[in-house]
Structure formats: structure tokens, C-alpha cells
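Q: Okay, next protein. This is Guanine deaminase from Rhodococcus triatomae. I've checked the sequence twice, so it should be correct. Can you predict the 3D structure?
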Amino acid sequence: MATVIVDADVITMDRDTGATPVTRSIRIEGGVIAEIGDSVAIREGDTVIDGTDRLVTPGLVNAHTHSWETLYKGRYDNLPLELWMLYSYPILGIEPLPADVVRLRSLVFAMESLTSGVTTLVDDVLETPGQSAGQLAAVFGAYDEVGIRANVSGHVINVPFLDTLPFVTRWLPDEIVREVGGQSLLTADEYLAFSREAFASHDRTGGGRLRYMLAPSAPQRCTPDLLRGATELAVARDAECHIHVLETRTQAVTADLLHGTTFVEYLRDLDALSPNTTFAHGIWLTDSDIDIVAEHGVSVSHNPLSNMKLGSGLAPWRAYHDRGVTLGLGTDGCSSSDTPRILEVAKAAALVHKITDPDPDRWPRVEEVLTAATVGGARTARLGDTVGSLEVGKRADFLVYDLTTLAFTPRSRLDHQWVYSENGSSLEYVYVDGRRVVDHGQVTTVDQEAILREFRAMMPRIAEWQDAVDRANSVLHEPFTRMYREAVAYPLTAGR
């Protein structure tokens, strides 16, 4: 049985009409867009949706997030990244989360994502103190159950934590240095073996919706052999290799001190860049770094909400566009942005760069922002041929908005209103692989209310655990503050 949408306003995000709304009918068969045009065939037994007063768009792509942080939503404020990580990704007094907690956390995160129109997640699953096969399976299982599309990572750090930051050891007591330095870490071979097993167990599961991706945490947090090996394995498996690069000024200082170069130059010299590589953040790049990114076909996930909240800076939007670099949009985790809703990120991206450049010709255009939120994000995830636009042969991941709501009243330029006006009140249906997974705010694939009740019942115990871990790590707050202030004052030289 097929689904047919008749005479709707449609934003296809394809090469022909882009973000310009057009009137179209769409036929979906077997989870695929079978026809799209002025009219399409309607057959007996088809489910027909009247497109009158409806806007149909591609599903949104969250090109960088961390589902771990679902448990930390709304917990911290006014902390730069290096101090914020002490609490959201603590290094003292932390125990692994049980698989049942991971499953519940992932279900809640996926439900909020779907009900806001996000149909694809790039979930960089950074478990602390480290990821197990059971935890990874719990994430894949939850996403399969709820019906979302996702790239799910094996995130890895295999450099001693205190070696990833400048100056900090001079401020720490010796016993803390010994305790943190004694933590066990994976070798590159162990991580690559884990990833090969993950590919065998999880890649292309969920009817092809779910994929495994490599995720070396950052160039300062991984050994050279792991950075090279992860890049090579990603290329061999046509998978995404997702890596945090130059999110903060402190990281630019770290590159300068460790290598006398930028981290982009360092990765290039290691042969650890490819078209499968996505940089999360990519803020503190030099002009020559951006040339290297473009030359190697590297993509960038732009995370303005998180970057503003943590005071990290802003990615050079127009410079990336000028070099032809593919951009996606990411929420980052719910501890640093407090939301999985990509439309909030899209609005922020459309607005914040207008105050960084006095030339309005260089400000983000709505079509550019929507491209990053849809087909650009899909390309960063190695899914550009699969989703991100409404085209014949692509998977039927799409959204249906009610245009009679206050958010679209008066009805004007629908592409602009999608970015600037829509607040979630207008979203009627969400489809993934041609299957209706959200109906008027309710997830249809799982018992949403039962999951939320279970999650709420669990949270007092989780909050007690978080409070205890916060107290244990607070001993690091003053030394890390000193490190941060020293890094802020350090004069950058490499590539500048």
C-alpha cells in the first residue's frame, strides 16, 4: 500500500527548486519516493493525504549530537567547554551507565528529536568512562525500536586526559595527576577491533536506517595510529569518521604547544583527512586550514547554540561557503545546547552571523541554512544519496506541517517562516522510510507516555549520582579555571 500526498506546498531541497516552495503531489511506495510532480498516480488501497493548507519538507538532519547528555539537560550554565566537561563528562568518581539506562535515555532523546522534525541523528555516543559493546547495542536497539534514522558512533579517547590540555598539570595536586593518569585506555588496535565488530553487528540494521560510524574524539585526544586507522576504516566501509576539531581557543593553543601547527595541518600530515571526515564545530581554523578542509572534501557540522552557550566562538560560515565546504547543522548535546531541535539551531545560524560581518551580502541566506539542516547534513553523514531532499528514489523521510496555525499566519514566504516562525506547533506528521512515526506530537512506534513515566521515575536516582560525581570533580574546578585563563591569554602563532 502506498501513501499519496496531493497538491501540497512542498520544499524539495533538490537541485531544481531548492528551498522555493512549489505545489507538488508525492507518491511513496516501499519507503521510497516513487513519484513527485504536478500529479501522480492514485491507486485503489492507497492512503491519500489532502495537501491543502499543508507544507511538506524533507526531514531534518542533526549532524552532531551526544545522546549521553540527555541526562544533563538544563543542569549547567556559564561554563566554558573545558570547565563544563569536568561535569558533563567527569573524570573522577564515574561508573559506567547500565545498558537499561542507556536504552531509556536513547529512547527519550529520539522521541524528542522526532517530535521536532529531526528524522536523522548523527549521535556521537561518548559514554563515560568508556563505551562497552552492551551500551552501544542499547543505543542501536532503542533507535531501531523508535524508528529514527541514525549514525551511531564508537567514540574513543586514547590519550591520557591531562595530556590533552595545556598548563593544567602545574595547578593540580600530585595525587590527582596520578589518579587520572592511571586510568586505562584503549590502544588503536583495540578500538579498530571493537569497530569492526560493531560494523558486523549493527551497521545497516533497522532496515538500513542505522549505521555505525568511527569517532576519534579529537586530534589532541587520540594517538596518531588511531587517527589514521579510523580514517582508513571509515573509507573502507563508506562510513562517516566524526571528529571534534578546534572547538575552542584553548584547543588552538594546545595544537600550537604540541605540534607548532594547527590541528588541521596535523591531521593532513597524518593522512587522517578524507571525504568521509566530518569536523564537529571547526571554529578556530585559519584561512589555510579552510583551504585544506576544502581540498580534502572534509565536511563541517556547525553548532551555533552550543558554541554560544559555552563561549567557544562561531564557525566561519561564509568562508566555508566560499570554499565550497559542505556544512551541516548540529545541536550538540543537551547539556551544552539544552535541545535536540534543529529548527532552533537553523534560526540561530541564520541570525548570529549577521552581527559578525557588516556586509549583508555575506550574511547567511535562508536557502543556505535550510540546505545545511537537510541535504547538507545528510551529506556530512554519508547519506546524501539516501535522504535530505525530496526526490524520486530517495528514502521517504519527510515532514507535514499545518499552514493554518498561528506560526504560519499570515502566510507569506514559507521557506522564511519555516526557519524564523515555526515553533513546533504546526508539525502534524513525521515520516521515516515512508512510515508515520509521529502523529500530532505523539510518537506512534512506542508507548511514549510509558517511557516518559519510567524515565521520570529513574531521574531522582540519576540526579543523586550526578550530584555525587559533581562534588568529586569540583576539586578540579579551580585548577581548570587557571588553565583556561592561561590559555585565553596565550598568544597564538601557528598558521596565524
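A: Here is a summary of the prediction. DSSP finds 16 helices and 17 strands in the chain. The radius of gyration is 22 Å.
Q: Noted. On to the next one.
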